[in-house]
Amino acid sequence: MRQQLYFSPTLRDIPQGADIPSHQLMLRAGLLRQTASGIYSYLPLGRKVLRKVEQIIREEMDEAGGQELLMPAIQPAELWEESGRLDDYGPELMRLNDRNEREFALGPTHEEVITSLVRDEINSYKKLPMNLYQIQTKYRDERRPRFGVLRSREFIMKDAYSFDADEESLANSYDSMYEAYTNIFKRCGLDFRAVQADAGAIGGKGGTHEFMVLSDVGEDTIAYSDASDYAANLEIAALPDIYEKSEPPEAQIEMLETPNMKTIEELQRGLQISSKNMLKSILFIVDENPVLIVCRGDHEINEIKVGHAFDSDNVKLADDNQIASIIGTEAGFIGPVGIPEDVMVMADFAVKTVYSGISGANQLNKHFKNVHPGRDFQIARYGDFRFVQDGDTSPDGQGTIQFAKGIEVGHVFKLGTKYSEAMGAVYLDENGRSNPIMMGCYGIGVSRTLAAIIEQNHDENGLAWPRSVAPFDLHLLVLNPKQEEQYDLGEKLYGTLKQQGYDVLYDDRKERAGVKFKDADLFGLPVRIACGKKASEGIVEVKARQNGEMEEVHISDLSTYLSSLFNEC
To answer: 145 and 70 in one domain?
Structure first.
């Protein structure tokens, strides 16, 4: 492709509102342009990279037995009513009505559509297992789109769905997709981790993993062991029960006046006591029943773990009115001592270590001191109810927990029968009995993957693409087209390199050499070849973008040199 004709508008300055490198460079290098908030047009350079990523995905999905189809972006609302998600999904679901006032939604995901399709076409165990996937545009009405395509309202996604007869077959499908995803992200040149995760709005009670690209701009926090392969999203990172119960103190429980001491920090300052010896109590409403969760003052209660402990999706923090009605006080003074009998009390494992603690007294501006779990209040069950902290023991017993930031680019779920039961997707087994189909769901954010690749492959001068996803293999520059030797050599090499199978961007523009070098660094193609002052001698300058190594090469040796160079990419 001749750059003089190529639609690749560049920007010298960082665009306003572009806060992270991938967003800045995608705009500056002409990969995309914003059409509206969270909505972008992909220009030719950006589209070529997307196609490279999509091709890698297709090859690995096909190798794993996936079959590609294409489902509609506009989905009937009644399908979402069948699954029970029409009202539960939230305001991110974009809704619209046709001329007959029939309600539709712009698909943020396709569980409902694929389930309705399969229930009408698959009715026998003989047609299972099956894996169907698509690459398509999705829509979510993000409250605050930001970071370019990392959080946008329109995005490109690969979503796959497996259909199996039983849990063993589903486990095989899940493992196959896990391996395919590992291959995909390796081929994209990414440094990533597969971490244990929460199913979230997609649902399902089985296994689930997120594929996280390590990046300081990531919105997710990964908790990982410094001595093993354990890794999990901070939301669900587990903690082992390594705590031993302390003996009760000789001192008995006493009331303290604690005016204006509602928080752990205020109690620390006012009482000069370590937060490790305080009890933090949070009232939840779980399936309409009050539950008090107690943790140590230096820890934070994890609402997702509370839901998992009760196997419930209906977990909410009690509001001020509920606290006043159930406990008779306000948040900040709640405690487990003397709690009403109809309130279940559960405690995090670490509460066992509290010796002579401070807790709320369930009265305004009052706390108890010398509180001991088991002596002064009863605990229905100990469990893992808190967020992990840096330095905690890894749940596999190997090493300690460390933190890293990550960009989620893929997510695999075992859905089980959540959608098949709700929507009547069943099959007949070999005995003629009807059973709900076991389902799995597997998503990759294609446009997010593009941004993640940039976050890990750039420098102060621009992009630095891995060859597997680079929009072109080579950037051929004629530094001074007015010089006949340079122009003729450039034209010759352009034809030769294309014949050798390289995808070449040929900068034949009538621009200064400095402009061409800056654009070449900005575009970040794997190899740059410059026809300059030594063109008359048949010598070109070859630069590898990722490591910056530069070499003068005679054109008679260029083919061999490039083969060696690309083998290292």
So the answer is: yes
